[in-house]
Each structure stands twice: as structure tokens, then as C-alpha cells.
Write a structure and sequence with these properties.
35% of the residues lie in helices and 21% in strands. With 444 residues, the chain is of the alpha+beta class. It has two domains: 297 residues, Aminopeptidase (3-Layer(aba) Sandwich); 136 residues, 2-Layer Sandwich (Alpha-Beta Plaits). The strands form three sheets. Strands 1, 2, 3, 4, 5, 6, 14, 15 and 16 form a nine-stranded mixed β-sheet that branches. Helix 10 crosses helix 12. Bound molecules: glyoxylic acid (GLV) and manganese (II) ion (2 copies). Glyoxylic acid binds next to loops.
Length: 444
């Protein structure tokens, strides 16, 4: 693979690190199960701390448990940091997160070993709890660093077994009582670079090795709680039932119905045959993306001979604009009222995440594209419908992301896979981009 400079990352070392990390929390079927707070999360933290120290970087675990490794620069300037997260979704794949952390380690270690004299401090980070977790706070580490989570919110968080987040963070090496000073600004961080797998199949379809991310979708999540009446499954007549599962099921199918209606509005609007499409689906924004998912669903008492009295589920909505997300959430609310009344059940809704879409920084994306072009690595631009830590870092400094193709578009499952050749290309671009950003003579 072509390089414009003599300093090169070592893909074999990356692969060896990747093999080690994939074994921590590995499942028999080839995936990993390493959610925040698990034994595997703690083991991987220990592995990373050891490895970052071995690479000659100064290691620091901050109050929320983010792991940093930094090499000092020659000038008193804000740092360039590369990184991602090391936790996984329950029973997920090996690549989501660790690829970015290990790539960061590889780039910074390579520069360190080459004796590169960096002007700015260069470093790596592995953020705490990027994925959804039992405390219902995802992208926890990056959100805290960006000042988007308060100590009060964090100290109040407990999991379903009444374990406090404070304890889980303490086990991870942090301390929720010492959060003051954790917040970073553009005076601390000049730029943040995150390599990640695409988690879709657009790069694979386009036949390119890397994608430069232009922006990251907004993510909205709510907990829906349906309370009906548990009763005898044999003796309760159909007309006397207040079945929480049936109401929850109707709402779940309703989410799909709303999406399908929106799709057909959109295609009719795009074909210029429909004048009255809702504003969020106007003909002016035919590219606008929106998707929604019911991903977690539980019922109680959950027994074969009891009509379910309780049903709890999450609704997640993602999109390229906050207004489209909120108008979809409002449509869902109308549906919930109608179904609740029709079935005689109580439906309550609680928003647990409302994160706006975020654009990536123009200087960083231009530098990533220029680095790829200099090395003749084919790349294209793309918008991310997956959430990432870079969203929050982009709220206070320059952030950029590079994607590598996911084979078959598979992610959040054991089949997650990316070609090492593509990761080698991404490493070369990241290294070149880091050098170019270090050389830039602009202030934060
Ligand atoms: C991140 O994993 C996401 O849910 O998009
Ligand atoms: Mn993920
Ligand atoms: Mn991820």
C-alpha cells in the first residue's frame, strides 16, 4: 500500500493487539460480550493500561474511567487525540470500538518509535461506556468530557439490580466524586480523530477502502411503560382483558407503520406527485434519513398462563435533523395515546437520550481526504447513521472520523468483520493526517 512518508504503521502489530483484545470477553461463536461494567470490560482496561505504558506514553484514567495515553509535545499547544471505545454491545462483534482504540495506539506508538518531534501533545483515548448499558447512559465518557452529563445525573444512575454507577465507575478506576476539572475545551484538545467500522454496506458497495465522515446522526431514545392488568389466561374473557403485551406489540408495529408511511410520503413527494407531504419530509430534503427501532422489550409476569400486566420497551429514533426526529416522536406520542385509550392501558413515556446530529470539522475532513489522495487510497464521503463518541467531542473542538468497510454491512452482532488491508489503509491515512494536523499553524 502506497505511503507518502517513510514512517509507517505496523499492521502486523495492530493485528496481534487486535487478536489479544478480541479474546477478552470472547464468546464461543466468535463474537464478544464486553458491556461496560462487566468483568471483560475491567480486564480490557488492565490490558490497555499496560500496553499504553509499554508504548512509552503517559497513562491517565480520569474520573469517569476514560483511559488516556499521551506523549508530550515540544510546544505548549492543545493536543491531538485519537481514539474510540473498548466496550461492546451485549453479544456484539470484535471490531466496533477496539479498531479505533488500537489504531490510535498504533499511530502514536509508531510516531514515538520513529523519534518524531511532535509540536502538539499526541495521545490516545478509550472512552468509557460508549454503548447502551445497564445504567442507560451511553457515550458516557465522551459526554462527560464534553460537559454534557452532570455529576448529579451520574451520581443518581443505578442499574436494574440497584447497583450504583458510582460503584461501577470506581471499579473501572474512576471516581464520580472527583468530576470537577474533567471537562475539556478546545484549549486542551486541538483535534480528535476516530477510526471506526462503517457498520453498514455503503463503502463495500462503492468498492472503496475508507470513508470520510461528514456528520453523525442525532439519536433520541425513550422508555415506554405500558401498564395493563395481569389476570388469569383461561378465565378472563377477551372483552375483559387489559393486555399490556398486545398494546406494546401494537405500538411496536405502529413504529414500523409510521416509518413506512413516511417512506411512501417521501417517494411520492420525490416524484413530485404529492403536494401535502409533512414538512420534515419535504421535497427539498429528499436525502434526509430517519429510522426508528424498538430494540429492548420486556413483559411481566412473563408466564404462559397469565395475561401480561406490564410491558416495557425502548423506542430509538435516529435522523439527520433534530426536527425530523422530534416530529416522529410526536407522531409516536399520538399513536400511544390512541392505543392506550382503545386498550384501556396506561402508557407512560420517559426520554432517556436526545442527542442532536453533529457535523464533522471541515479542516479535519479536508485533511483526511488530502491524506488519502496523497496516498492514492480510494475514499468517499458518507454520513453516519451510527452514533459515536466523536459526536460529543465535535461539540467543543475539531473532530473527524474515518470509516473502514464492514463486510456484508454486519455490526452489533458476532459476524462483524473488516479486511485488515482496509485497516492498513486507514492507519496510513490517520498517521499522515496526524502529521499534517500537527504541522498546522492555526490556533484552536
Ligand atoms: C453505536 O454503537 C450506535 O448505537 O450507533
Ligand atoms: Mn456500537
Ligand atoms: Mn462504536
Amino acid at each position: 500500500m502506497p505511503e507518502s512518508r517513510t514512517i509507517q504503521c505496523d499492521i502486523k502489530r495492530f493485528m496481534s493487539h487486535f487478536t489479544d483484545v478480541s479474546q477478552i470477553g470472547s464468546t464461543a461463536d466468535g463474537g464478544v460480550n464486553r458491556p461496560f461494567g462487566s468483568e471483560a470490560d475491567l480486564q480490557l482496561r488492565a490490558w490497555l493500561i499496560q500496553r499504553i505504558g509499554d508504548a512509552g506514553l503517559q497513562v491517565k484514567v480520569d474520573a469517569i474511567g476514560n483511559i488516556w495515553g499521551v506523549m508530550a509535545g515540544s510546544d505548549p499547544l492543545p493536543a491531538i487525540i485519537l481514539g474510540s471505545h473498548h466496550d461492546s454491545v451485549p453479544f456484539g462483534g470484535r471490531f466496533d470500538g477496539p479498531v479505533g482504540v488500537l489504531a490510535a495506539l498504533e499511530v502514536v506508538q509508531t510516531l514515538q518509535e520513529a523519534g518524531y518531534r511532535n509540536r502538539r501533545p499526541l495521545g490516545i483515548v478509550s472512552f468509557t461506556a460508549e454503548e447502551p448499558n445497564p445504567f442507560d447512559i451511553s457515550t458516557m465518557g465522551s459526554r462527560t468530557v464534553a460537559g454534557r452529563l452532570t455529576a448529579q445525573q451520574l451520581l443518581a444512575a443505578r442499574d436494574g439490580n440497584d447497583r450504583s454507577l458510582e460503584l461501577a465507575i470506581a471499579q473501572a478506576g474512576g471516581d464520580l466524586r472527583k468530576l470537577s476539572g474533567i471537562r475539556k475545551t478546545d484549549q486542551d484538545l486541538f483535534a480528535f480523530l476516530e477510526l471506526h467500522i462503517e457498520q453498514g454496506r455503503r463503502l463495500e458497495s462503492a468498492g472503496v477502502a475508507v470513508g470520510v465522515v461528514t456528520g453523525i446522526c442525532g439519536i433520541y431514545r425513550e422508555l415506554v411503560s405500558v401498564t395493563g392488568e395481569a389476570n388469569h389466561a383461561g378465565t378472563t374473557r377477551l372483552t375483559d382483558r387489559r393486555d399490556a403485551l398486545l398494546a406494546g406489540s401494537e405500538l411496536t408495529l405502529g413504529v414500523e407503520r409510521l416509518l413506512l408511511d413516511r417512506l411512501s410520503w417521501r417517494s411520492r413527494a420525490a416524484n413530485n406527485r404529492e403536494e401535502n407531504a409533512p414538512a420534515a419530509i419535504s421535497r427539498d430534503s429528499p436525502e434526509e434519513e430517519l429510522i426508528a427501532t424498538v430494540g429492548r422489550f420486556t413483559i411481566a409476569p412473563n408466564a404462559p398462563n397469565i395475561i401480561p400486566g406490564q410491558c416495557d420497551f425502548t423506542v430509538e429514533i435516529r435522523g439527520a435533523s433534530s426536527s425530523a426526529i422530534h416530529s416522529f416522536a410526536a407522531e409516536f406520542g399520538t399513536l400511544a395515546k390512541r392505543i392506550g385509550a382503545a386498550r384501556g392501558v396506561q402508557i407512560s413515556r420517559r426520554v432517556i437520550l436526545d442527542q442532536a446530529p453533529e457535523a464533522m470539522d471541515g479542516t479535519v475532513t479536508d485533511t483526511l481526504r488530502a491524506a488519502a489522495a496523497a496516498m492514492h487510497i480510494p475514499c468517499c464521503d458518507l454520513f453516519s447513521m451510527a452514533g459515536h463518541d466523536a459526536t460529543h467531542i465535535a461539540s467543543f473542538t475539531k473532530a473527524g472520523m474515518l470509516f473502514v468497510p464492514s463486510i456484508g454491512g454486519k455490526s452489533h452482532c458476532k459476524e462483524e468483520e473488516t479486511r485488515m488491508d482496509d485497516i492498513a489503509s486507514a492507519l496510513a491515512i490517520l498517521l499522515e493526517t496526524t502529521l499534517r494536523l500537527d504541522g498546522l499553524d492555526i490556533d484552536a
